[in-house]
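Figure 3 (text version): structure tokens given as input.
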């Protein structure tokens, strides 16, 4: 078992506040990831660590067929209310409950760093991506500059 129970409790404790106040800050990252991966009409997309579903909503507006997974049941509930027809599940990013080679694009924005075994989580993302598909991961971190 990975960290989903702990992370789900932490992120789900104030799910509505996250969705209303914080989530919008990630929109530029989602759009950049979708541009890089060529998300468009007909793309089959999975967002790992989908939170309250903003990325899924933006991909849906591009015409993608969206699915999502998050550890926090409260956030998944919000995502499902935003996209009632989408397959959005509570689960573990280290044990994705999807078949091999299902998605054209797998994204993870601000999620992979919470995995207990990051390498395995990335291998799972690759497993569910189709051959030639894209896996796009965005994670914040320290920056440095050299002169």
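Below: residues designed for each position.
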């Amino acid at each position: 078992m990975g960290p989903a129970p702990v992370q789900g409790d932490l992120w789900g404790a104030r799910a509505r506040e996250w969705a209303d106040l914080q989530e919008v800050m990630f929109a530029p990252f989602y759009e950049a990831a979708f541009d890089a991966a060529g998300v468009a009409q007909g793309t089959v997309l999975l967002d790992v660590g989908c939170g309250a579903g903003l990325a899924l909503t933006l991909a849906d507006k591009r015409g993608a067929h969206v699915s999502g997974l998050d550890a926090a049941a409260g956030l998944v509930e919000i995502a499902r209310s935003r996209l009632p027809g989408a397959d959005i599940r509570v689960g573990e990013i280290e044990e994705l409950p999807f078949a091999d080679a299902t998605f054209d694009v797998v994204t993870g924005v601000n999620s992979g760093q919470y995995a207990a075994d990051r390498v395995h989580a990335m291998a799972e993302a690759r497993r569910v991506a189709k051959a030639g598909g894209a896996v796009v991961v965005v994670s914040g971190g320290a920056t440095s500059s050299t002169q």
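The mean pLDDT is 85.
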